[in-house]
Write a structure and sequence with these properties.
- With 134 residues, this protein is mainly β.
- Helix content is 12%, strand content 57%.
- It has one domain: Beta Barrel (Lipocalin).
- The protein has helices spanning 17-23, 28-36; strands at 7-15, 40-45, 50-56, 62-67, 72-75, 81-89, 92-99, 102-111, 114-121, 124-132.
- It has a 10-stranded antiparallel beta sheet with strand order 4-3-2-1-10-9-8-7-6-5.
- A hairpin with a 2-residue loop joins strand 6 and strand 7.
- The protein is globular.
- The two termini are 21 Å apart.
Length: 134
């Protein structure tokens, strides 16, 4: 159930994120900021099953609102316009973005009380770890 992901999460560890951002076409200046920012990530689900994901930081904030399994347009924090779909598969929230013939996947899992986001583009994988805020 998506409800188990609901809450406020603070990023604590980010591995290989620069290579991931480079793989999806993020420019140098944005990558430099993306590498130092430790965003807060908020997931909420309303009574109708609409999911909202907010990423908050001093550099840039973004928000998406969607229903599981329904494609929508997303303007990403790095200004890509993507067709995005989020599914709940095998206990994971799987977000797939497509744009300009490219695809990337952000797979979110819960492990030992932490939210683990695995970002994959081709053979480049980044892992970001978040801890739940009180």
């Amino acid at each position: 159930m998506v409800d188990q992901f609901a809450g406020t999460w603070k990023m604590t560890v980010s591995d290989n994120f620069d290579a991931y951002m480079r793989a999806i076409g993020v420019g140098l200046a944005t990558r430099k900021m993306g590498n130092v920012v430790k965003p807060t990530f908020i997931i909420s689900v309303d009574d109708d099953g609409v999911v909202t994901m907010k990423t908050l930081s001093h550099f840039k904030s973004s928000q998406i609102t969607f229903r599981l399994g329904e494609e929508f347009e997303e303007k990403t924090a790095d200004n890509r316009l993507t067709k995005t779909i989020v599914t709940f598969t095998d206990g994971k929230l799987v977000q797939t973005q497509t744009w300009d013939g490219k695809t990337t996947t952000l797979e979110r899992t819960l492990h030992s009380g932490k939210l683990i986001t695995t970002c994959t583009s081709g053979d480049v994988v980044a892992v970001r770890t978040y801890e739940r805020e009180a």
